[in-house]
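Re: beginner question about structure tokens

> Can someone show what the tokenized structure looks like for a real chain? I only ever see the sequence side.

Sure, here's an example I had lying around. Input first:
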Amino acid sequence: MVERVRAAGIEVDAPLLPGHGTSPRALQALGFDDWLAGARASFDRAAERGPVAVLGFSMGSLLALSLAAEHALPGLVVMGCALRLSAPLRAAFQIAEATRLRLPDAYLGKPFGPDIRDKTLAAEIGAYDRHPIRAAMEVHRAARIVSARLGDVRCPVLVQHGARDRVCSPRAVRDLEAGLGSRDVRVRIYPRSAHMLALDYDREEVATDVVRFLERVRYAPVEP
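And the corresponding structure tokens:
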């Protein structure tokens, strides 16, 4: 995705969020506020060079929506939106919250690989060998916080989601559409893809749609 956008002549910055690319234990110690602080810092650096469009994937979609609620952007791309997790994950986190279960250092094994239909590319996905539960619950918590601010997002938005996504429910698209304050929202559901949308079977179409959207909003006036 980054290379396709760069090849279109658009400058790209893909920052590594705090706790990512390190270890499960390092990620477990952090929360959504830490990740949002990292995203804000990267956004501020990029904004020194001109208008910044933001693309967020999965948990990153919540960060991207937060930035769009805080700033006037030329455009926003939301991939695999984490506003609504899959039913088993959502139920587990709701039970943990209701019982005030404290999981400061709990981990869950990964019996299955990444959620991608095209298994030929599964090996290219770098991932931890276990799920840090507290960090995962932070995504669930952040979704509620971000949902309350969707009306503040007024820039053009491209929403992309895999029809076979088993991590973030495709129903999140409906919630997102209903809550956004933007009058310019385009939704694309890709029938052959799961959660890892930028690498799955529809990856070429996904990348093409992103580039076309960015080119459309690139020189458009930014609404205050």
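Each token stands for a local structural state, so reading them left to right follows the chain. The CA atoms of residues 20 and 66 lie 19 Å apart.
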